[in-house]
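Hi V.,

Quick status before I head out on leave. The structure for the redesign project is tokenized and pasted below; the design run finished overnight.
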């Protein structure tokens, strides 16, 4: 439990591509039981032709509804709009990147992977055929199938748009590497994690909010309560 005499930040949980705020339900329950206040946001690029900057605006609008300090937890693609949005928000005290893209200004998801820009940027990307293995390989089949049914197409534009700002240069950040990830390879995560002030690791696949929600909640709470490690960039 957190110490009620010490002001604690609100945790804003931001999902990745094809997902929605529903994916945080289990760790939110664990965090709430431990005394934490949590919020979520649905990124418009999940299901609509919206890009990084519309997603960043949605994050900023949610931040505007929260009083006091905020720790943002960004998963996977969600790290990109969070990195953009947090550069403009005064009350963000830390960013936690969970198997997430901690990109710099002028970088995009496709650029990070050295992939070409799409010919039709206003299309929607269907749910990947191998989503069960990519996202939910360490979940029981029934739970994985239930999560799969909730996925929606993702905006193509969101993958190609570059950042114009990178909050982690001025906002303390931590990275959680998911060691058995089949979506964002651990070696890529380790590369991205060098941009954070501290690195933690979970023996999970890409979706620890489903496969090990209690363990994830404990790590998030631990990071949120620790003294911030200032960026060295």
């Amino acid at each position: 439990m957190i110490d009620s005499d010490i002001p604690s930040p609100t945790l804003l949980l931001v999902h990745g591509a094809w997902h929605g705020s529903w994916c945080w339900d289990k760790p939110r329950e664990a965090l709430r039981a431990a005394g934490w206040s949590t919020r979520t946001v649905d990124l418009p690029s999940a299901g609509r032709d919206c890009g990084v900057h519309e997603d960043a605006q949605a994050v900023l609008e949610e931040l505007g509804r929260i009083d006091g300090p905020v720790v943002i937890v960004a998963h996977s693609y969600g790290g990109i709009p969070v990195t953009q949005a947090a550069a403009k928000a005064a009350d963000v005290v830390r960013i936690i990147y969970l198997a997430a893209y901690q990109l710099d200004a002028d970088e995009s998801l496709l650029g990070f992977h050295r992939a070409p820009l799409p010919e039709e940027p206003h299309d929607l990307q269907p749910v990947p055929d191998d989503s069960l293995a990519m996202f939910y390989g360490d979940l029981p089949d029934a739970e994985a199938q239930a999560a799969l049914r909730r996925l929606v197409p993702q905006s193509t534009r969101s993958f190609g748009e570059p950042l114009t700002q990178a909050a982690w240069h001025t906002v303390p950040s931590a990275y959680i590497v998911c060691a058995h990830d089949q979506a964002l390879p651990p070696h890529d995560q380790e590369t991205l994690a060098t941009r954070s002030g501290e690195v933690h690791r979970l023996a999970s696949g890409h979706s620890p909010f489903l496969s090990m929600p209690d363990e994830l909640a404990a790590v998030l709470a631990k990071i949120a309560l620790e003294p911030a490690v200032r960026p060295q960039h």
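Above is the designed sequence. Residues 1-6 have pLDDT under 50 and may be disordered.

G. will cover questions while I'm gone.

Best,
W.
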